[in-house]
Structure prediction request, 218 residues.
Amino acid sequence: MAGTRAGLDRRSFLVGSALSVSALGLSACKTSDTMSLAEAQGLYGPMPQEKFPIPAVDISKVDPKYYRRTVSYETKEAPGTIIVDPKNYYVYRIEEGGAATRYGANVGRDGFLWSGDAYVGRKSEWATWTPPKEMIKRQPEAAKYARGMPGGLDNPLGARTLHLYQNGAYTLYTIYASSDPETIGSGITSGCVGLLSQDMIHLYARTPVKTKVVVLPA
Prediction:
C-alpha cells in the first residue's frame, strides 16, 4: 500500500518499491499548523479497544500539515461527499456551511493515478485482503495470499476500508487505513488512498454506503 516482514509486509504490497522519507521533528510546543503537540498526540493516540489494538502514531513521522483538521472548502458537492485531492495528498469530507474535515493521505504512484466519480459500494472492518491478479503478476510473492489474507495490523487494508464502485461494479480501488505514518503525503500505492488508522476510523464512522466520492485529477 519498504521494509519486509517475513519477506513480505503490508507496504510491499501497497508500495511495491522502496520508500525514503525524512522524519520531521516537533521541537516546539506548537506545530506549524497551530495544533499543539498534545492535541496531535490526542488525535493519534492508541486505540486499545479495537479488535486488533492500534498503537499510537509516531507523529514525528508526519508533516503537521497532514494532521486532521476542519478547514474552509468551497464546493458544489453536498455535505457528506468525499473528495480526494491526490495532487496535494488530502482527503476531504464535506461538512455544512462551507467547511470540510481534511485528512492527510497517501495516494497512487505514477502510473497508478486515476480520477473521476465513484461511490462507496460497501464498507469493511478488518477486511480480508486478496491481491488482484495484476498485482500477483507484478509481485509473484503475493501469490501466497491469493485466497486472502485475514484482517489484522499487517493486512494492507488495515482497520477500516471503503470500497469504491462505479456503475455497480467494484473498481478495485479503496480508501483504507494505513499504519505507516511515513507514507502520508506520498504517492506510493497501486491507486488506493490511505489515511492514518485513526483518521480512517473517524471518516468511516461518518460515511454511509452510497456516499459519493470524487477523485480529482493529479
In short: The longest strand covers residues 116-125.
